[in-house]
Amino acid sequence: MSVIIRGASSLSGDNQPLWVIDGIVQASSTTSGNVENTLYNLNLHDVQSIDILKDASATAVYGSRAAHGVVIVTTKRGKPNTKPQFEFSTTASYVKTNYNSFDYFDAPEYINFITASSKDHILSDGFGYFSGEIIDEQAFWNLNTSEYDESDLQVIPGAFGTGNTPWQDIITQNPLNLDYNFSVRGGSERSTYFVSFNHQDTEGSIITGYSKRYTGRINFETSINDNLKFGVNLTGSTRKTSDKDGLLTTLRQISPDNEAFNDDGSIYTPGTFIENPYTSLLNTNSGKGINFSGTAFLELKLINNLKFRTSFSNNYSNSERLRFNRPGTYNTAVGERYWSDSKSSRSAFENTLTYATVLNRKHDIKVLAGYTLEENVSDFHVIEASDFADNDILNNFGSHVTVDDIYESKTQNALLSQFARVHYKFDDRYIVSGTVRRDGSSRFGEGKQYGIFPSAAAAWLVTGEKFMQSENIKKYVTYLKLRTSLGGLTGSQNLGDFDYITAVAADPYNESPGLYPASLGNPDLQWEETKMFDLGVDFGLFNDRVSGSFGIYNKTSDKLIYDDDVPWSSGERDITANVASLEAKGIEFSIKYDILRANSHRLTFDFNFSKNTSELLKINNFQEQLIFPGTSNQRMVLNVGDELGDWFGYQTAGRFYVSAEDAYAMRNNTSSSGSIEPFLDSTETVGDMIYIDQNGDGEITDEDRVNIGSSVPKGYGGFGLTYTYKGFRLNTTFTYAYGHKRYWMLPNEDVDRLAYRNSSTLIAGTSTILNSPYDANYPRITQDGIGENSLFSDFYLHNASYLRLNALNLTYQLPREIFKNSTLNGVELNFKATNLFTITKYPGFSPDGGGSNFTDVDSGAGDDRSTYPAARVFSLGVKLKLN
User: Fold this and answer.
1) Are residues 317 and 419 in the same domain?
2) Which of 64, 115, 641, 653 has its CA 20 to 30 A from that of 462?
């Protein structure tokens, strides 16, 4: 094997660079290690040279997939090994659900809590709808006295069930999932091919939930002659699912004192708004989908150094959803059937002309020009019916009594792009590139459809200079490159297909067709523009024993597309508009250090860190603020100069009212210091929240809301260790984030209105209902949510800093000498464990689960809806290679 390495020489670690073998993109390497092991895993045994690109040109040529660099491999014969190479692998994974100590009440705990909560409600606010279902009101009036306490309040006989059903244990499981992969690659002097097949059989953490997926892929490329090349890439998949994720909500709706079944064996139905999970398990919530993507291209060599390439690609998906809810489902008196069908197609026709040459071995020039036509079409159909002759067999649409809804929609958009790119490298040291795009989108109205977006980048390979060639410098600085992008401009069309026009809809009126305005259009909508500047350095020190990069960036987004309030007299509440301008700043740093480097073993440490902040520069309309979300429960309010991600709500005193005197002393208090809170209403009492009256006017109003923290981490990233010894490879990957707060919505919902829902020992079990206000973690939790304890405040924001061991991977490749005279030429055994442990003070399921995204604009970035618990996954796999 002859290996020539140019540029940054280290291939170890988990950056997963893009591999290009003899000009053919092979996708990211999943077995990064030293050079020889990586080539072995890619079935390349006759290598002539390797080029490693980490400059701006890699991303420019190969797109975002090349973010970690491009490894270009050239074989001696100019093609990969022509002998077919077969590979088979299978993995078995054990999934263990982790609720982070979140356990629901059992029946005695639930009865004790609901009884205490009902009595507390009556003592402070009298009998209510829910408390009246638990406490005997007539017995109370029979006392005929004004002096009573909670011991005088009697539970209605039969108010609670006689069961003690562990619903959480019944509906959850720790499944064993299987994954199979098969592939073959090979070719001839002129043609190469790659075929793969994958099957995933996955069960959910909720019983009867599953996903079964089949995926196939074919890549084929051939040189018809010396001047004409043809290629096709096809990928297709099918998937069937049974979605039972909603059972986590059902689990909260039913109390543990309910029996699972009636005496006759039928499923017990507690009430109209309480669903038995066994009913949920019998309900249908299935889906199936087909996805296909294909690309075909022709590449024609017109003259030396000039190539024309034309390609057509299509991505098509078709998904169906079928849902049938039996009587006994939440708020369902008769069977209800729902079916939807969604189809989408994206077609792109691209043509490029590329000229590439090297002059005098120093001037490397590449010029590209082209245009793309893109069309997207989506169709959506729905039918809903109810009341069927039978809920087990005759529940098809032909057996319905009532059609509840029929809906159909179709939408489409098109994008026309013209672009040009120039890339120039001088003497392998100085790199300059420039790109200009002209994009036209059908999502904008007349006169606003087109935008022009130029960008430029430059790089300087400092170690290519003569003054860096001395041995005294080279032994310390192996690789050094400075890079920058100069005011690059990009455009976004992140809006609906027809938001620029006013839409109408149809509904019957007096048994005749009728039309009405469905939305307000905005003909002034235009491209959202983002100007980007970044400056960075890539380095390799001590013979690349230490390598990494450091960069800073500044990104200004103008004409931000978002919902804009309009006067309600218009019949609408908002329209899509270019509402504001934002500025984002950040730093990114990564480093890799070979702690131990020897012929037979290596120990490498890698670390990366990112920090991002965004500021609202201006608002483009008459509004003074941007509010996220635009509902009554507003959680983020941005004024000009504010940072995105700042929470906006009430500040609490860090304690609860500890006595009736404590609460009464606050009534109508107008302390000028604003340090204590007057009553919000007459129901506030012992165990309730204390809010801070910020302006000291004696009232708690919207004006008392302040900045109460940020959902954006002060920093986040990851680090890991990789150890290789002969055929062994051990890798650990950690992630972290710190300095931010998340909104845990689950306790806020319980405090707002618990009703008959079950709660947990972690929330209701530590509330002031069952504990002293000095020792409790949560305020009063009652059926009607009295006490104003559910206002959005810093109380429901939790420190979400964490350190997690995301993955531990152990692989072993059997020595190649074993397979010298065998069809089998490689065996790899692997063990992988994910989400092993998390160090955090965050009380919810996961400090970064439930929809977290540090780059989101609105409050969804920090909302934790507890949609699904985290899981630990332990996998064992084997990979076989044959030829």
Assistant:
1) yes
2) 64
User: Is residue 855 scored above 70 in pLDDT?
Assistant: no
Residue 300 lies in a domain: yes
Distances (CA, A) of 542 to 472, 506, 522, 539: 11, 72, 59, 10
pLDDT of the residue at 721:
97
Structural element, H or E, at residue 126: none
Supply the Cα-derived Rg of the chain in whole angstroms.
Answer: 32
Interval 447-458: pLDDT, tens: 999 999 999 999
DSSP state of 281: H
Given a cut of 80, whether residue 73 has pLDDT beyond it is no
Enumerate residues 6+ apart whose C-beta is below 8 A from 883: 43, 81, 83, 84, 85, 86, 823, 825
Alpha-carbon distances of 685 from 163, 522, 658, 677, 818, rounded to whole Å: 34, 50, 8, 13, 78
Per the structure, the complete domain to which residue 31 belongs is given by: 5-81
- On whether the CB atoms of residues 72 and 55 are closer than 8 A, the answer is no
- Residue 19 falls inside a structural domain: yes
Average pLDDT of the chain is: 86
Residue 706 bridge partners (DSSP): 649
Instruction: State the Cα–Cα distance between residues 794 and 362, nearest whole angstrom.
Output: 62
Q: Could you tell me what percent of the chain has a pLDDT over 70?
A: 87
- C-alpha pair distances (Å), 474 with each of 88, 385, 477, 590, 859: 44, 76, 5, 22, 50
Domain count, the chain: 4
Place of tokens 């309910």: 258
List C-alpha distances in Å: 263 to 255, 260, 811.
Answer: 19, 10, 55
Domain check: are 117 and 64 in the same one? no
Does 369 have pLDDT greater than 70? yes
Residue 116 lies in a domain: yes
Among 380, 398, 427, the domain boundary falls at: 427
For residue 165, what are its two tokens?
Answer: 């059903």
> Which of 174, 252, 238 has its CA nearest to residue 206?
174
Res 536 pLDDT > 50: yes
Beta bridge partners of 195: 184, 218
Q: Say whether both 69 and 122 belong to one domain.
A: no
Show the DSSP H helices in 738-812 as ranges: 745-752
Domain shared by 423 and 290, yes or no? yes
- pLDDT class of 850 with cuts at 50, 70, 90: low
Instruction: Provide DSSP, 370-419.
Output: EEEEEEEEEEEEEEEEEEES-SSSS-SGGGEEEEEEEEEEEEEEEEEEEE
Q: 411 and 294 in one domain?
A: yes
Quote the CA–CA distance of 33 and 148 in Å, as a whole number: 76
Whether 632 is covered by a domain: the verdict is no
Distance (Å, whole) CA 536 – CA 59: 15
Helix (H) or strand (E) holding 472: helix 471-474
CB 110 within 8 A of CB 758: yes
- Cβ-Cβ contacts under 8 Å for 424 (sequence gap 6 or more): 363, 364, 365, 366, 431, 432, 433
Nearest to 250, CA basis, from 354, 325, 362? 325
- Predicted confidence at residue 127, as pLDDT, reads 87
Backbone φ and ψ of 35, nearest 5°: -60, -50
